Amino acid sequence: MSAQALAHAQAAFRAGDFTTAARLADELVARQPALMPALQLAALAHMRLGRPDLARERLEAALKAAPGDPNLVNSYGNVLDALGETGAALAAFRRALQIAPSLVDAHLNLGRVALKAGETDAAVAAYRRACELAPDRPGAWHGLGLAHAEAADPDAAAQALDRSLSVRPTLGALHARARLEHDRGRDSLPFWDRALAAAPGQPDLLVGRAAALRRAGDEPAAIAALEALVQAQPDALSAHAALAKMRFEAGQADGFDAGYAEALARSANPAALWAAWFSSLLQAGRPDQVLARLDAARPALGDSAGRYEAAAAVDAGQLERAEAALGGLDLSRDPELQLVNLRFLLKAGRPDAAARFGEPLALEAGRRNVWPYLGLAWRLTGDARWEWLEGDPRLIGADDLPLSAAELAETAEALRGLHRSRTHPLDQTLRGGSQTEGDLFALDHPAIGRLKAALSEAVRRFVDQLPPPDPRHPLLGPPRERFRFTGAWSVRLTGQGFHINHVHEKGWISSAFYVVLPPGVGEGAEDRAGWLAFGQPPAELGLSLEPVRLIAPKPGRLALFSSLMWHGTLPFDEGERLTVAFDVASLGGAR
Questions:
Q1: Which of 12, 174, 384, 571 is the most buried (most CB within 10 A)?
Q2: What CATH class has 392-586?
Q3: φ, ψ for residue 330, nearest 5 deg
Q4: For residue 497, which phi and psi values (nearest 5 degrees)?
């Protein structure tokens, strides 16, 4: 009887009927709690149904009976990963490999989760071993390529991805290969065309090809390609976002978001389209337009309309409306709304309430974005913890790098060729200038490579002089032995350009490296135009707090600081200010 029921459950699973498979397997487990095949099948079915908590229960029961089964331990690692328990998941995969060193799936899972956790060396090692054990598995080579790319080894990444494609040309590897070539600053159009031949009309591939067209200097063709895409696929959200961004940066600020409005009448998922449109408007600093369209969006958005009303009302300074909207929402499990509420409390002149609200949130894992607002609340209320968080002068450094004038000039020439937009990016913090796209340090250029090496040495010096480790502190808590760059870009500001005050919530250490400055800007300038300011909150919060420190810019000077410290650039009158910026992550992770 059990064998027949198990066979029916297995058949349902193979047919993709995971609901039936889970029900039948659970019924078997209820009758025979130690029936291993039923426990395993129930766990797999619950995972496919998005129920990792139930899968965990089944696998833990199975592991009590067979703690040394490497396949069970490996599956348990996948469940822990789905539950967000990354460290425990990595430990499970490593335990499975202690039991069965040749278990390919465990190597692949270890590589995948290690890569997600930022442990690039471990990811490369795991994927490399999987490739040795199963050279005919394209996924192993694909993963190795992604790991090498994340480890800033594009040549090795290209070789691994090409090997994956030679085994079997999967769409994922085709996409990754095109993206790698684009990120290196090379002609990636043939690679996008190869991927599109395998998946014609795939939106993310068409968006990538449009970006390649723009990089090749044909911005009109890039915009036209995205316009055709959203016309053919009105619910292609990535295409809408790319089109809005490209139009905005091309100087079409007035109608940058027209694609969303035109697509709504043809959308099969208007709620998602409205949400994407509102997010784009908020990024562009146009909360009034969100509020003006809310009534039209409510039938599609339903209860979630209140989220956008609260965020837009706060940004628009309509504090009574914001308070009413926030009062009707459940903030307890919504991190984005919790930040909206923090901004509201600060903007409404209630720093004590902001501190009370933010303090328990900052202690939660993954809530680094709360610290900058908590720091403002502590500073406004005279709480001494602000000094602990941001007051130590060693948390901000200035380092004049040993680069010659000729080397800086070569770097400037390379950077200028990468600035193609007519205005600032839709989703970034500069005003009156342009920013390069993609990861600057992935480009294949000798001046960029030389600069990266010099910057890496400077980051090491900065990390070595930091105050003693403090596990509670967002900058001083993470391990310091090894780090990696997680993104790099160049900013070119012109007359009256500046950066609005902001933070980098995903970084550990952030930076500004000065390549070119306008005449009269920098050391010795009495008006401090173009200087880098720390500790001043965004103007829209309406807080009367002055900078706590200023750094004078100078060609060849690098400023390094906690990514969670408010920073911005004071405006200057005219000329060119050309910089490089990057974020750094601890390879041990950031608290």
A1: 174
A2: mainly beta
A3: -90, 105
A4: -80, 155
Per-position pLDDT tens, the chain of length 591: 477 888 888 888 888 888 988 898 888 878 887 778 888 888 888 888 888 888 888 888 888 888 999 999 999 999 999 888 999 999 999 999 999 999 999 999 999 999 998 888 999 999 999 999 999 999 999 999 999 998 888 899 999 999 999 999 999 999 999 999 998 888 999 999 999 999 999 999 999 999 999 988 899 999 999 999 999 999 999 999 999 999 988 888 788 999 999 999 999 999 999 999 999 999 888 999 999 999 999 999 998 999 999 999 999 999 999 999 999 999 988 999 999 999 999 999 999 999 999 999 998 877 899 999 999 999 999 999 999 999 999 999 999 999 999 999 999 999 988 876 555 555 555 555 678 877 888 888 899 999 999 999 999 999 999 999 999 999 999 999 989 898 899 988 776 655 578 899 888 999 999 999 888 776 665 677 778 999 999 988 989 899 999 999 999 999 999 999 999 887 777 778 899 999 999 876 443
Q: Which helix (H) or strand (E) holds 568?
A: strand 567-569
DSSP 554: -
What are 280's strand-pairing partners? none
Note whether 530 and 553 are within 8 A (CB).
yes
CB 490 within 8 A of CB 579: yes
DSSP labels, 240-282: HHHHHHHHHHTT-GGGTTHHHHHHHTT-S-HHHHHHHHHHHHH
* HEC assignment per residue over 468-516: CCCCCCCCCCCCCCCEEEEEEEEEEEEEEEEECCECCCCCCEEEEEEEE
Q: Which of 360, 284, 335, 348 is nearest to 505 (CA)?
A: 335
Instruction: Yes or no: say if 21 and 9 are a contact pair by the CB < 8 Å rule.
Output: yes
Tell me which residue of 184, 244, 245, 175 sits closest to 209, measured CA to CA.
175
Sign of CA dihedral 8, 9, 12, 14: negative
Residue ranges per structural domain of the chain: 330-389, 392-586
Query: Measuring CA to CA, how many Å separate 566 from each of 38, 70, 365, 419, 487?
Result: 54, 48, 21, 26, 19
Buried b (16+ CB within 10 A) or exposed e, 525-562: beebbbbbbbbbbbebbebeeebbbebbbebbbbbbbb
Q: Rounded to a whole number, what is the distance in angstroms from the first to the last CA of the chain?
A: 52
Q: What pTM value is reported for the model?
A: 0.83
Burial class (CB in 10 A: 0-12, 13-18, 19+), 571: middle
- Tell me the β-bridge partners of 514: 579
SS3 assignment, position 582: strand
CA 387/CA 375 separation, integer angstroms:
9
User: Do residues 539 and 499 touch, judged by C-beta distance below 8 A?
Assistant: no
Q: Report CA-CA distances (Å) from 128 to 111, 125, 147.
A: 9, 5, 10
At 160, the amino acid letter reads A
